[in-house]
Amino acid sequence: MRTTAILVVAATLFAAGFTTSVLAAATQQEKMKTCNAEARTKALKGDERRTFMSGCLAVSPEEKQARLAQREKAKTCTAEAKGKGLKGEEKKTFLAQCVAA
Description:
- The chain is mainly alpha-helical.
- The chain has one domain (2-100).
- The protein is built from five helices and no strands.
């Protein structure tokens, strides 16, 4: 049930264009491409490559803080929507506006 609620919120946010987590995932994918290309250029293998990739892909404290804040906001908005008894489109609209605020 909780997973479903989170997926609904994520889908709603994505549709509304206000999702930090989707943007973060896209950014992480771009980071992965860049790090892989750099590791290839440096011809890194084995442990050297793993160490390099770990450092290259590390998430900054600011990014972690932003993701956590976004998750907490989504949880709060979902609980508020549930408390108001919202369903369907009404709930989606409310969640998009709530998270964007």
